[in-house]
Structure formats: structure tokens, C-alpha cells
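In response to the reviewer comment on reproducibility (Comment 2.3), we provide here a single inverse folding case reported in full, input and output, so that an independent group could reproduce the run without further information from us. The C-alpha cells appear first.
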């Protein structure tokens, strides 16, 4: 190798070393976390533990258990496929039925979220309209602002709410559970809804949103950004999806999903870690920030 090439090689190596040192210094200075740790709900609570009966809905039949091949494709064993029907339908001859599918992911999440626009079309359904984002009307009568949460950990509106587990049908009756930030009485959950036609020409509506690192999004691309916030040690997300052939529009699906969520949202949050506790270092026990955690 000529002298000029040795000099060029040395300069290039020096630049790489300086860049690596600079990046490492920046990561330490800004407390960034490129590697994400897995985190689970307290007590290992899983989505299948959601109550089969609520004030307004009741499960029909057994939960669908997917084959090992489908579970491998799904990318998680913590999932739920359950059909709910109205407890007291307005039209007893044609009660609304809605399928709830939920799946939990955590740690170094490399799975592309499985959403209807990809999976339903891939299985042979025809999407009939472009997906739209619609608000989900949820009963907020048991919600209360949690003033114990530091302002910097609340949502953009400066508040973070809790909801009460129902006394009847609830798995932890009366318990108050923190909701995702930015989900307030004035700012409902929003979900992405699309419509399909199957081989029997039966219209089908499907809508979903994600709960990720204590927040919510209605976009499969945005969920990874939310879950991989570089300031967090941990990463998780839950896909919550509703499917029904008993509804007539995206708004109708949102209405029915809102009724079911009014009963189940606090229970779903019990199947996730309390993100305030995670951020403050109090959960889980091996949280790297535990020595900096404020007194409980």
C-alpha cells in the first residue's frame, strides 16, 4: 500500500473512531436507549383474562385459539380472539356481534403490526373503501383526573385520567386504573376503520388502534415510533382491533366498539404495565431507574 493510501486509510479510520466516540457521548449525555427491554403487566396478566361478561356485552362461544403456525406469524402468544354480542340488543332478532382481537408485543419489537389492510386483503377479502380515522365514543362517567402524576408525565393537555373497574363483572372491582395519556373526556380514542367484501358478498368493517408506551395511535407506522421513544428503557404495544359484519358504517363500528370499550378499557389497561410507574422507576423490580424513583 502506498504512503498516500496509508494516510487516507488512517484519516478514514480516525473519522470513524471520532464519530463512534461522539455518538457514544451523545447517547450518554441525552440518556438515550437504543436497546429496549421487555416489560409485562403486573402478575403476568394476559389479554385472555379480560372478562367474558360486561354490563352491556357477553362472549359468545369459546375464544378462538390459533394454530402454532398462525401464532408464529402473529409474533406473540399473548393474544385474544373473542366474539361478543349485545347483552340487551335493541333488535333481539338481529343483535350486534363484534369480534375483539388484541395482541401484546414487548422488548425489541421487530414485528410489523398485523392490520386488516394487509392481512384481510392477503386472505382474499376485497377492501371497498379507503381507511378513515374515526373517534370512538366511550363512556367517561367513571373517569377522574389523576393529580398525583407529575406534569411532565401527563398528556399534551396537561391531564392524565384514571377509570374505575366496574363492581359488577370486573376482575378487580372498584380498582382505579390509569388510562393512556392524551385520552381524556374531550379527546377520545381514535381508530382506523376500513371496509371489506368477502366471498359471500357480506360487508365487513374492521377498525383498530394501538396502545404503546402509555399512549395511543391509530396508525401501524406510527406505533413503532411511539413504542421506540429513545428516552425509554422499555417498549411495548397492544393492538386492539374490532371486526363486525353487523354494522352499517365506520361510524357504526366505532359506536359499538365504544360501547364495548366503555366496559373493557380499564381491564385492557390492567393487561399492560402502568407507564407512569415504569417512567418513575418503580416498576418492574429490575427497572434501571429504580434508584432514582420517588417514594411510592
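Designed residues, in position order:
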Amino acid at each position: 500500500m502506498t504512503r498516500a493510501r496509508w494516510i487516507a486509510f488512517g484519516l478514514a479510520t480516525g473519522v470513524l473512531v471520532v464519530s463512534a466516540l461522539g455518538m457514544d457521548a451523545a447517547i450518554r449525555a441525552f440518556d438515550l436507549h437504543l436497546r429496549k427491554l421487555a416489560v409485562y403487566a403486573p402478575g403476568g396478566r394476559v389479554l385472555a383474562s379480560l372478562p367474558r361478561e360486561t354490563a352491556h356485552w357477553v362472549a359468545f362461544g369459546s375464544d378462538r385459539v390459533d394454530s402454532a403456525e398462525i401464532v408464529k406469524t402473529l409474533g406473540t402468544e399473548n393474544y385474544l380472539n373473542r366474539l361478543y354480542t349485545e347483552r340487551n340488543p335493541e333488535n333481539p332478532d338481529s343483535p350486534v356481534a363484534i369480534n375483539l382481537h388484541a395482541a401484546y408485543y414487548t422488548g425489541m419489537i421487530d414485528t410489523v403490526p398485523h392490520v386488516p389492510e394487509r392481512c384481510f386483503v392477503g386472505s382474499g377479502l376485497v377492501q371497498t373503501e379507503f381507511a378513515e380515522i374515526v373517534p370512538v365514543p366511550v363512556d367517561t362517567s367513571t373517569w377522574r383526573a389523576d393529580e398525583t402524576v407529575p406534569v411532565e408525565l401527563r398528556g399534551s393537555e396537561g391531564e392524565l385520567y384514571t377509570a374505575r373497574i366496574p363492581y359488577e363483572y370486573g376482575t378487580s372491582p372498584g380498582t382505579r386504573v390509569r388510562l393512556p395519556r392524551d385520552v381524556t373526556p374531550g379527546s377520545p380514542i381514535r381508530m382506523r376503520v376500513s371496509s371489506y367484501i368477502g366471498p359471500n358478498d357480506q360487508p365487513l368493517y374492521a377498525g383498530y388502534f394501538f396502545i404503546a408506551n402509555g399512549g395511543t395511535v391509530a396508525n401501524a407506522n406510527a406505533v413503532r415510533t411511539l413504542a421506540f421513544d429513545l428516552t425509554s428503557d422499555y417498549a411495548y404495544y397492544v393492538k386492539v382491533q374490532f371486526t363486525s359484519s353487523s354494522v352499517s358504517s365506520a361510524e357504526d363500528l366505532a359506536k359499538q366498539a365504544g360501547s364495548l370499550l366503555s366496559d373493557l378499557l380499564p381491564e385492557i389497561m390492567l393487561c399492560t404495565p402502568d407507564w407512569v410507574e415504569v417512567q418513575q422507576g418503580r416498576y418492574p423490580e429490575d427497572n434501571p431507574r429504580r434508584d432514582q424513583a420517588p417514594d411510592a
